Amino acid sequence: MLKEFRDFIAKGNVMDLAVGIIIGAAFTAIVASLVADLINPIIGLIIGGIDFSNMYVVLKGHVDPGTSLKAARDAGNAVFAYGSFISAVINFLIIAFVVFMLVKGVNKLKDAAVKKGEAAPADAPKGPTQEELLTQIRDALVKR
């Protein structure tokens, strides 16, 4: 059983998946920083300095105006944090767009490599077709 597990882990697909997950986690951290540190402040400037992360409605309890979301939660109040949801949607859309552009670029590189690979064999001398080889084998068997 241990040998089967080792063979399973050593397969290329499992290793490729592990590398993809690790790179994906690092990539997500980069994009999250891009959104939080660069894009959200720009969006905030465009719409009048609004910070989405501190937008909430108190469902139960009392919160003084201007209290941060963290402070409101820490005080034990029930809050409806719609600003966090808006930030999560913006993060998702940006990450999805960046991944789309990345996949599009990789596919373009693959297509270029395939076209290059197809051009090389066309220049190579042509060998016999499958039918010609089968005919030669048949003729050789008949002569015996």
Automatic annotation (TrEMBL):
Keywords attached to this entry: Cell membrane, Ion channel, Ion transport, Membrane, Transmembrane, Transmembrane helix, Transport
GO molecular function terms listed in the Swiss-Prot or TrEMBL record: mechanosensitive monoatomic ion channel activity
Protein topology in the membrane: Multi-pass membrane protein
Main location as per UniProt: membrane
Subcellular location: Cell membrane
Gene3D superfamilies: Large-conductance mechanosensitive channel, MscL, domain 1 (1.10.1200.120)
SUPFAM superfamilies: Gated mechanosensitive channel
InterPro entries: Mechanosensitive_channel_CS, MS_channel, MSC/AndL, MscL_channel
Residue ranges crossing the lipid bilayer per the database entry: 17-35, 79-103
CC per GO annotation: plasma membrane
Similarity field: Belongs to the MscL family.
NCBIfam families: mscL (TIGR00220), PRK00567.1-4 (NF001843), PRK13952.1 (NF010557)
Protein name: Large-conductance mechanosensitive channel
Species for this entry: mine drainage metagenome
Gene: mscL_2
